[in-house]
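Notebook, bench 3.
Goal today: get a predicted structure for Helix-turn-helix domain-containing protein from Allomesorhizobium camelthorni so we can plan the truncation constructs. The sequence was checked against the plasmid map this morning, with no discrepancies at the termini. Length recorded as 257 residues. Pasting the sequence as submitted so the record is complete.
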Amino acid sequence: MAEAPLPRDNVGSLQRGLAVMEILAAHPGGLTLTEMADKAELTRAGARRFLLTLVAAEYAIQTGRRFSLSPRLLSVARTWLQGASLWSYAEPFMREVALRLNESSSAAVLSGEDVVYVARVPGRHILSVALHVGTRLPAWCTSMGRVLLSDLPAPQLRELLESAKIERNTPKSITDRTALAAEITKAAQAGFAIVDEELEIGLRSIAVPIRDRSRKIVAAINVSTQSSRFTTAEMKREILPHLLAAALKIEDFFIVQ
């Protein structure tokens, strides 16, 4: 492989490793170490390091002297494709909720101790928190986070709460880990979570889960509003039914997959 100068921020070894994966993809029957070194224009030692790294990461399989890609790469691609198409499918239902209530609606997935926003339909009322696709927020103090955490096995949830950086964002923030675990358990039992001014004063949100065919929670959708517009009781009465209906429609995506 010719060594062309790389821009400052490029990682040359990663680029060469991806090229090795592309070569393997073009040879489903597999390649020997010598064949890979020749096709990738690498030394045998360099080709060996890349191939064994892919095997260790379970992206490649070694059978005797031959190396080939593993199904894990297909799984990664499938996950990405499903995620992208899921939120394209979900957005009209979220928009319907947002328009009906004149409030913003968002969707998020769990990433470690955080939630990551994967879709958002802004409302007509401006919130002080700047939120957009890609925003990360602590799971423990958000309604979508508590819904997503509610599906974790108890030992995993306990470990996450013990390691999480929990700070008092507002006077209403629940920072006691036992109390947080109880709130998350309550969300699991109720099928929704409300967070009342724990992230920021004046901000309330309510979230419900999105489940796949196996009933595993894969995402959550919410409605965020100003505390002056809805009490928590009004959120349960006036917002929750629309969120639950939207979640059911979004879950139809998994039935047709």
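The two ends are 40 Å apart (CA to CA). Residues 72-101 form the longest helix (30 residues).
Flagging this for group meeting.
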